[in-house]
């Protein structure tokens, strides 16, 4: 567990999410990891909690800008916590890093996706910027 204790209930309330026991458990699980998680990973940690309940909690977090979805090309959608002030606008998007050894995906919050000038009539709705390589944990 994290040494500097962040209160999960407060995090939920700050995003106008009602702290239910399931939501708290899902949030605690996400807080305990440094990498993005698949639904399956969360389900494995929260043994005994139904997948649909976890999925509903995640979808609620997503709607309230607490969690963002990542498509890293691995075939499984992953979820990671957003930063405090994130509103999940295009300006909030950051680069993700996929490690080919441990197959984990990390948020590189400090690296923003550069804004790009699109050809006329093209409207951007979302963007996915994934860098692949070897993560810090595997590179030792
Ligand atoms: Zn790795
Ligand atoms: Zn991210």
Question: What is the structure about, briefly put?
Answer:
With 140 residues, the protein is α+β, with helices and mostly antiparallel strands. Helix content is 27%, strand content 21%. A hairpin with a 5-residue loop joins β2 and β3.
Structure commentary:
The protein is α+β, with helices and mostly antiparallel strands. It has a single domain (8-133), classed as Arc Repressor Mutant, subunit A, CATH 1.10.10.10. It is built from 4 helices and 6 strands, in the order ααβααβββββ. It has helices at 8-14, 21-31, 39-45, 51-63; strands spanning 37-38, 67-71, 77-81, 94-99, 105-112, 130-133. It has a 3-stranded antiparallel beta sheet. The longest helix is centred in the middle third of the chain and has 13 residues, at 51-63. It is globular and about 45 Å long. The two termini are 23 Å apart. 21% of the residues are buried. The mean pLDDT is 90. Residues 99, 101-102, 104, 135, 137-138 line the site of one zinc ion.
């Amino acid at each position: 567990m994290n040494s500097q204790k962040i209160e999960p209930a407060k995090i939920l309330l700050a995003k106008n999410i009602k702290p239910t026991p399931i939501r708290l458990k899902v949030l605690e699980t996400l807080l305990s990891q440094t990498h993005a998680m698949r639904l399956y990973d969360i389900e494995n940690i929260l043994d005994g909690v139904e997948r649909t309940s976890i999925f509903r909690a995640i979808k609620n977090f997503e709607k309230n800008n607490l969690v963002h979805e990542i498509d890293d090309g691995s075939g499984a959608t992953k979820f990671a916590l957003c930063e405090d002030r994130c509103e999940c606008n295009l300006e909030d998007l950051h680069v993700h890093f996929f490690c080919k050894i441990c197959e984990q995906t990390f948020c590189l919050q400090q690296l923003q996706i550069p804004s790009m000038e699109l050809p006329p009539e093209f409207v951007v709705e979302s963007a996915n910027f994934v860098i692949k390589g070897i993560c810090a944990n595997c590179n030792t």
